[in-house]
Design a protein that fits this description.
The protein is of the alpha/beta class. The chain has helices at residues 10-13, 35-48, 72-83, 94-98, 103-113, 125-128, 137-141, 155-159, 199-206, and strands at residues 22-28, 52-57, 89-92, 118-124, 146-149, 170-171, 186-189.
């Protein structure tokens, strides 16, 4: 598939259109997407008063192998289908469009292209435990607000998480649009009922 055929929708390429908006960024392989992804997107939207959530389908997660990875087009189409009933959610080709391979590169490019947009990166709690393996993870955490959404009970899980070693403001009680997204921070959302499902389990059930 040529890159010319994988552009983000025109309304995403218009940076001025998103000035003053709050946008959650949910990145992943989505191999396949499932209700757990949708659930944390909805939680983040409510907790931070987000105007939109952009789902960023990564062409290839650097921390995952290629052997069990569905084709990009198939994964993207499934994300489109999952978000179709949610007007404030959008499947995007952003990493193809921006030509980025790592989350830090993507976040940096987005902040440059949308200087008047407030962003927050949305992660499930499983990512908190491997976050220190991400490329330039400390730079990423100092570049953009990040939220980790944990299954209850999560007090000890959060306490022992490697991300806690960072000297970055950390918050446990986001307050909707009152939460400051103009500076880097790490926010923990706990005590919410989670959907107990994973992409790996879905793939295994289909074999």
């Amino acid at each position: 598939m040529s890159r010319n055929n994988i552009l983000s929708p025109p309304n995403l390429q218009d940076g001025a259109r998103w000035a003053g908006k709050r946008v959650g960024l949910l990145g992943g392989s989505f191999n396949p997407p499932h209700d757990g992804h949708l659930h944390i997107a909805r939680i983040a939207a409510a907790k931070f008063g987000l105007d939109f959530v952009w789902w960023i389908v990564t062409p290839q997660n650097p921390l995952k192998g290629r052997s069990d990875m569905a084709p990009y087009e198939e994964r993207y189409q499934k994300v489109e289908e999952m978000t179709a009933a949610h007007p404030k959610m959008m499947a995007t080709h952003l990493e193809h469009w921006l030509g980025t391979n790592y989350t830090y590169e993507t976040a940096l490019a987005l902040k440059e292209h949308y200087p008047e947009t407030e962003f927050i990166w949305i992660c499930g709690m499983d990512n908190a435990y491997i976050f220190h393996h991400w490329d330039r993870w400390q730079d990423l955490a100092r570049l953009i607000p990040i939220t980790f959404i944990a299954r209850p009970p999560a007090r000890l899980l959060v306490k022992n998480c490697p991300v806690r070693m960072l000297d970055i403001p950390q918050c446990n009680n986001p307050q909707g649009r009152k939460t400051n997204l103009s500076r880097p921070s790490i926010t923990w959302i706990r005590g919410t009922k989670m959907v107990d499902i994973s992409s790996t389990e879905i793939r295994k059930s289909l074999k």
